[in-house]
Amino acid sequence: MFSDPLFVRTGSGMLPTARAQSLERSLSLLKALLAAELETDRVSATEVPFEPGESVRDVRIVSPGALELSLLPTLATMLRARAPQWSLTIEPFERRSYETDLATGRVDFVLSVGGTTPIGQLVDADVLWEDEFVVLAGPRSVLHEGFDRISTELYLAQQHIYPLPWPTSQNYLDVELARAGRHRKIAFSVPS
Predict the structure, then answer these.
(1) 103, 30 in Cβ contact below 8 A?
(2) Are 179 and 152 in contact (CB under 8 A)?
(3) Strand 109-110's sheet: what is its strand order?
(4) Where do the DSSP E strands lie in the chain?
(5) 37 domain residue, yes or no
(6) Residue 2 confidence (pLDDT)
(7) What does the pLDDT read at residue 192?
(8) How far is residue 115's CA from residue 107's CA, in Å, rounded to a whole number?
């Protein structure tokens, strides 16, 4: 229609043009959206009320490791109480777009910390909570006594323990510090 060829003939068959390759992501998202819409229409046509306590399914959540000890035990307890036949699968969080995974139903939820996960047209996002930055210090630290709040300078002068949910060059705090030309003293790193 627009005289924009999508494939070119070669001696060994057909190859996609640059234009066809640029459309590939959009078309795959459109296909996923259409499939999800058709599934919704099919399910609503049967008009069977949804009862979580009587259904069986696997809920897949993508989550940073930092939430495994705080949010996920509460979520698992609620799930067992309201939908005892459901199972919960947690997948590790990667800094990437989960739009296709969510649109196709491969994952049900993506929990992200720091608000930096790319969000596309097929994904709806909500802020679940906002937190203050908290520093933990042992009894031998200068930070242990007498501070409700500390300055950035005092914070950065300390040696830090860093659990590695992702590299320091990719976490929210260290990226913001680097933008300001500042860095923490990482004395010890652990995998989680």
Answers:
(1) no
(2) no
(3) 87-92, 58-63, 109-110
(4) 7-10, 13-16, 58-63, 87-92, 109-110, 159-163, 185-190
(5) yes
(6) 59
(7) 64
(8) 19
Q: Is residue 98 part of a domain?
A: yes
- Residue with tokens 């999800």, as numbered in its chain: 36
CA distance 91 to 50: 26
**In 3D, which of 132, 140, 190, 182 has the Cα closest to residue 161?**
190
Q: Strands of 56-108 (E only): list them.
A: 58-63, 87-92
Helix (H/G/I), strand (E/B), else coil: 109: strand
Both tokens assigned to 148: 């409700």
Lookup result for tokens 């777009």: 97
CA distance 183 to 100: 35
Q: Give the torsion through C-alpha atoms of 31, 32, 36, 39, to 10 deg.
A: 60
Q: Are residues 157 and 191 in the same domain?
A: yes
pTM of the model: 0.54
Query: How far apart are the C-alpha atoms of 112 and 67, rounded to whole Å?
Result: 10
Q: Which residues does the chain have with pLDDT short of 70?
A: 1-2, 23, 26-27, 30, 40-47, 66, 114-119, 164-170, 192
> What are the beta bridge partners of residue 110?
62
Range of the domain at 188: 132-192
